[in-house]
Amino acid sequence: MDRHELIGWLRETDETRLEALWARADKARRLNVGDEVHLRGLIEVSNHCVRRCAYCGINVTNHEVERYRMTAEEIVGCARQALDLGYGTVVIQAGEDYGLTRDLIAAVVRRIKAETGLAVTLSLGERPDDDLVAWREAGADRYLLRFETSDPELYASIHPSLPGRPSDRFEILRHLRDLGYEIGSGVMLGIPGQTWQTLASDLLAFQGLDLDMIGVGPYLPHPATPLGRGELPEAPPGEQVPNTELMTYKVVALTRLLCPQSNIPSTTALATLNLALGRELGLSRGANVVMPNLTPAPYRALYEIYPGKACIRETANECAHCLSGRIVRMGRQVGRGAGGRDRGEGRG
Ligand code: 5AD
Ligand code: FES
User: Fold this and answer.
1) Looking at 61-181, which runs of residues are DSSP E strands?
2) pLDDT of the residue at 347
3) Ligand 2 pocket mutation pick from 85, 322, 328 by most atoms within 8 angstroms of CB
4) Among 31, 43, 148, 238, which has the highest number of CB atoms less than 10 A from its own CB?
């Protein structure tokens, strides 16, 4: 699919044609990755962050946030719970928090691998090379780093670099792949300044990077951030991508058609826009992964990257039952095994 066709689909409003897009994406999903829906248990291990991302509620400039960092014992405890709940993977996610030291994360990864055998995905930001190498050696299987937008100017405006450390997420992703990680990336939809052209480039970049996992979700404004306060400009009228549920389904479907073998989550941000049906509609329009939250109750509400996040009040057990019920009612199956790129037989 070329840029012109992509933009046509992104701007499509005709319901009959969109139904045809959903059907094509669902068929590509079934043929390429099957009916299994993989569960990746998400552990939000720290909401400390050194970054000033203009969209993110836990960025360092937000002094209203009560900060927490889980202990190694707590993180490993969540991984044991993931095993009990039948998940194949744990995702260890945090802000860019150097209080999570190289040694601490390496030790946690080793313990989780030894005690549970689960696949371990890390999502800890733009860490130095030595950290990424040490964690891969400790047994981490995958790394998630969304590039957020492929437009360098827009990226620089929403994601200020640290002094003396230019940020090139494409380069980091390629490096992670060279280190032997499966790599995941993605973008937010509808950030102010994102145009149809930019989003088409994002989709083509997914293809070019040969990603194992691709997560896309609507941008949800957080009032305590520069973007949420409206301090950055929108694209000119007619060019701005909306941050809607419909836009998310279109991008999930197009991502499946462009990258048929990838693992694509039906994201929490999408579920936040439609609590009743967002997850299911994502799964029936190209997605094959969901990420139930495992973060312990006292911390869950504090990881507020955007307001109104789904599953803030639910427990890990409640999310597990909720999601497996939703999957089975759709006539799909809960995935077994790690659910890697090579469909379950892979590492971990
Ligand atoms: N709205 C939607 N998604 C967000 N993320 C961060 N802040 C927001 C927001 N306000 C997404 C980013 C990040 C991922 C962990 O969460 O894409 O990479
Ligand atoms: Fe958390 Fe449904 S997934 S309540």
Assistant:
1) 89-94, 119-123, 142-144
2) 34
3) 322
4) 43
The C-alpha atoms of residue 123 and residue 93 are separated, in whole angstroms, by 5
192/228 Cα distance (integer angstroms): 10
Q: Write down the CATH number for the domain with range 3-330.
A: 3.20.20.70
What is the residue with the minimal CA distance to atom 1 of ligand 2?
319
d(CA 22, CA 16): 10
**pLDDT range class, residue 165, cuts 50, 70, 90:** confident
Considering Cα of 122, then 125, then 131, then 133, what sign does the dihedral take?
positive
Two tokens at 44? 């939000």
Could you tell me if the CB of 269 is within 6 A of ligand 1?
yes
Beta pairing class for 89-94 and 333-334: unpaired
Predicted pLDDT of residue 210: 87
The 10s digit of each residue's pLDDT in 226-252 is 999 999 999 998 999 999 999 999 999
- The response to whether residue 319 sits with its C-beta less than 6 Å from ligand 2 reads yes
Strand partners of residue 122? 92, 143
Domain positions in the chain are 3-330
311 lines ligand 2 (CB under 6 A): yes
